[in-house]
Amino acid sequence: MQGRIIKALAGFYYVQSQGVTYQTRARGNFRKKGQTPYVGDWVEFSAEEQSEGYILSIAERQNSLVRPPIVNIDQAVVIMSAKEPDFNSNLLDRFLVLLEHKDIQPVIYISKTDLLDDLTELKAIREQYEKIGYDFVYDLEELLALLSDKITVFMGQTGVGKSTLLNKIAPDLQLETGEISDSLGRGRHTTRAVSLYDVHGGKIADTPGFSSLDYEVSTPEDLSEAFPEIRKASHGCKFRSCTHTHEPSCAVKEAVEAGAIWQVRYDNYLQFLSEIENRRETYKKTIKRK
Q: Which residues bind Zn(2+) (predicted)?
């Protein structure tokens, strides 16, 4: 039989096939191969009546996230709060870099807009991200329209109201919500497992919240590719290996100066580039010591 893993918990994998969910375990040979089934995997499995099934093989994956461990994702809703914690473009861009690198379509959702007295600044930010090509919403109905026929992951900094949003989208889930800790300025970790749920004509995943994000981009070239507006402008650069920092005839820097690329995004790009280069230098020094 064939189906998709919709939940993984305590060594069991729950596989959905033709509307029926089967409880399975992974064969021992997966461990020998260094393979682990993940939520979202398309698998071949055996399931005899009234007995535990076994996963026999895993199909090739379209994409994957390490944290949370989930695969074959169509899009990811990145939840950023307008306040408590304050909107953070640097953190948002880290999420976007990760998703671009993984070839997962991002949707930006802003929560807690009711805490703002004035939406002028938020509307200006929305305009910048929509100019790049991203869906940027803070209305629930707008978001629901984007979920149909998609496998959607919800991700965001701890404390942005992710579980609260998911409870509005799918009240039957009754996900546990955590209060904001005044001393830490972030929420407690409340999500325990990754699962796929049938919601609004698609499937959604609740995923653990976290307060920091390590994007899996290790070269300047990959970083440049993960910023769509920089990727597009870079075709006009004089040098193919242009890092868009100090090189002459850099089309990206010209676009920034002309206002075609948002200064905030470019500044975040420069910070991420510096982090990548520092990691590479540290790695080289470590290798030399050995």
A: 237, 242, 244, 250
